[in-house]
Amino acid sequence: MRNSAVPRARAVAHLAHEWLFTLEADTVAGRAADAALAELRGYALTDDWPAEADPGDLQPARAIRRALADGRMAAREIAYVCVEGSGPRAAERAAHAFSRGLGSFATMAVMDFGEGTVARCFGALDRGDVRGAVALVMGRDGVNLALAFSRPR
To answer: SS3 of 133, please?
Structure first.
């Protein structure tokens, strides 16, 4: 994957848990900078308490399911889930959230664990690798943010 084909995305917190996404891309695959790469269809926030919960905690999976419901998307539409988290057992929690969040459709999707969740989802959607993607951020403060994306309609 070429670096020039990966858009840079920045999430800016606005008011109480409202998120505004701005895409900063000069050109992506020869298109104009203002071309839509993805459509934010739904989002959800859930809260873990305590922040370092058991890997079997359902809150991150609940965030995925709620984001899909908010965007009126089905789990079968999601082919890519990118999860970002930190702390002990973050990878275990990510795998659990992925399998529980998509249910039986997790077998037809790919999970990626690392930083830059939104940019990775945009890249997969822009390349045409997938039609639907979810970015999940499991924050250090115990807040889980899930964003459901699709290709622009």
So the answer is: strand
